[in-house]
Design a protein that fits this description.
The structure is a single chain. This protein has ten helices and 24 strands. Strands 10-9-8-7-11-3-12-13-4-14 form a ten-stranded mixed beta sheet. The chain has helices at residues 25-45, 80-88, 102-111, 139-144, 215-229, 262-283, 323-326, 353-361, 376-379, 461-477, and strands spanning 7-8, 11-12, 55-61, 90-92, 95-96, 130-131, 149-155, 173-177, 198-201, 204-208, 235-240, 290-296, 330-333, 342-344, 348-349, 391-395, 399-405, 408-411, 414-418, 434-438, 442-445, 479-480, 485-486, 494-495. The protein has three domains: 7-45; 55-384, Alkaline Phosphatase, subunit A, CATH 3.40.720; 393-488, Arylsulfatase, C-terminal domain (2-Layer Sandwich). The protein starts with 6 loop residues before the first strand and ends with a strand. The radius of gyration is 24 Å and the shape is globular. The protein is an alpha/beta fold and 497 residues long.
């Protein structure tokens, strides 16, 4: 006799269970006993996930530069809480955002796909007719199906129409803003282009944000309260700090405290936020069963000068596919399985989080195409093999700019923005970019030349050939506007009818 338990529309079912009638009391009693066991078994199928199922906290900053943490070499910014997380966990030094701009990067993290595959490029503005498609499975929805409580505090930026709101895509709780914090009437270049910036609670606008000074503090407190409230439930917390995207704001506790300028104040307040969240985990006995990831959506917005971060040795910044635009800090903390002082140089990307979280929570992946890889064995040092054959760097509407292949990165002809060595101001007013056309393909060895100064395209024809083949395969899947190739696996963003 075989009993199987599975879910269908929330109801347990029994397959192959046959209990025959028998006139003897002995068999009758046995039947009752056996039926009781069956009911106990079925009840266990409806229970919440085991307490051993890990909680997940994903902290995403906005426009943080590669060298903006002391653990990543900042000479002036002090980040002791993040440094401790890196010391107790894994520091990734070849981690990339999926695209060098807000909406596309966030869509990629939450769906596990290259943003261009799902129709995302650039940054959505207020009253956009686009947003995340209802057929996409987000991390929030995937984990909610596993019995997780879910929350997003901070910046959403995947559509501000009602049908695109986070509470329509697997999040139980939302507190924050629907797009970038500079899309408001105080924009330094386009003050008449944006409506009031509204602070939302779930689907209700509750306040006009004329001053963002306390936002980091409020989002942190929301996160701490969420942790305490759900200490007995598995949870997914997505803390998407609007900072250090301009305009910069720090609370009165941190404004001026660093003595190194407002940008440093802002990062040190974010570091304090991390400290408070780890403290909340420890107070609730959750520190051994919670995965914490800290990273950025893309590199720094260099035209803002002293109000922007630093890429260190890496070339260019936000809005470009050069290393400074997409190579960003990433720290992963899970003392239960990630060894202290782990440093990972394997190239990884924002597309990898959804399949990785699916693996560690036993969740089911979407039927849609997933580009990311399960990187858990890389993070725990169980496997040294690179999970990706290559990483693809798109920008704007299906423009394949570059490919990372092992130690190599090759760029295809495209137009990009640069400051050409000029420095921005310290007053929050951006300077103008220049635009350059990359006329021919270029190849760099990122181990020997991480700053991408020596084009060795003509010296390694075999490497070039291998990368060209990978490019053609990806163009056939997703497309490339520069080659007029239209991919066969594109999926649409949601559209307001």
């Amino acid at each position: 006799m075989q009993i199987s338990c599975y879910k269908h529309k929330g109801s347990p079912q029994i397959n192959g269970l046959i209990i025959k009638k028998n006139k003897t009391m002995r068999i009758f009693n046995s039947t009752i006993f056996f039926t009781a066991l069956v009911l106990i078994f079925l009840n266990s199928c409806d229970q919440k996930p085991s307490v051993e199922t890990p909680n997940v906290i994903f902290v995403l900053t906005d426009d943080l530069g590669f060298q903006d943490l002391s653990s990543y070499g900042s000479p002036m910014i002090k980040t002791p809480n993040l440094d401790l997380l890196a010391k107790q966990g894994a520091l990734l030094n070849s981690y990339y955002s999926s695209q060098a701009v807000c909406s596309a990067s966030r869509a990629s993290i939450l769906t596990g796909t290259y943003p261009n595959r799902i129709g995302f490029s650039g940054a959505l503005g207020p009253n956009s007719k686009k947003g995340i498609h209802p057929d996409e499975l987000l991390i929030s929805e995937m984990l909610k199906e596993q019995g997780y409580q879910t929350a997003i505090y901070g910046k959403w930026h995947l559509g501000d129409n009602e049908k695109f709101l986070p509470t329509r895509h697997g999040f139980d709780d939302f507190y924050g803003i629907l797009y970038s914090n500079d899309m408001w009437p105080y924009h330094p270049e386009r003050p008449n282009s944006y409506p009031d910036l509204m602070l939302y609670e779930n689907e209700t606008p509750i306040q006009v944000l004329n001053d963002q000074s306390n936002l980091t503090k409020e989002l942190t407190q929301k996160s701490v309260d969420f942790i305490s409230k759900n200490k007995d439930n598995p949870f997914f917390l997505y803390l998407a700090h609007p900072q250090p995207h301009v305009p910069l704001f720090a609370s009165s506790d941190f404004n001026g405290r660093s003595k190194n300028g407002l940008y440093t104040d802002v990062i040190e307040e974010i570091d304090n936020s991390i400290g408070l969240i780890i403290e909340a985990l420890k107070e609730n006995g959750l520190e051994k069963n919670t995965i914490v990831v800290f990273t950025s959506d893309n590199g720094p917005w260099l035209s803002y000068g002293g109000h922007a971060g630093s890429t260190g040795i890496y070339r260019e910044g936000k809005g470009t596919t050069w290393e400074g635009g997409q190579r960003v800090p990433c720290i992963v903390w899970y003392p239960k399985e990630i060894k202290p002082n782990t440093v990972i140089s394997t190239p990884l990307m924002g597309i990898d989080w959804l399949p990785t979280f699916a693996s560690v929570t036993n969740a089911s992946l979407s039927k849609n195409k997933i580009d990311g890889k399960n990187i858990w064995k890389t993070l725990t040092m169980e496997e040294e093999k690179d999970p990706h054959e290559a990483l693809f760097f798109y920008y704007h509407v299906n423009s394949l700019h570059g490919i990372r292949y092992g130690d190599w990165k090759m760029y295809f002809p495209h137009r990009y923005r640069t400051l050409n060595g000029r420095m921005g101001t310290n007053d929050g007013i951006p300077i103008k970019y220049e635009y350059i056309n990359l006329e021919a393909k270029e190849l760099y060895n990122l181990i020997d030349d991480p700053s991408e100064t020596k084009n060795v395209y003509d010296q390694y024809p075999d490497i070039v050939k291998k990368i060209e083949i990978l490019a053609e395969i990806k163009r056939s899947e997703i497309g490339d506007i520069l080659t007029n190739s239209i991919g066969s696996e594109n999926r649409p963003v949601g559209l307001i009818n």
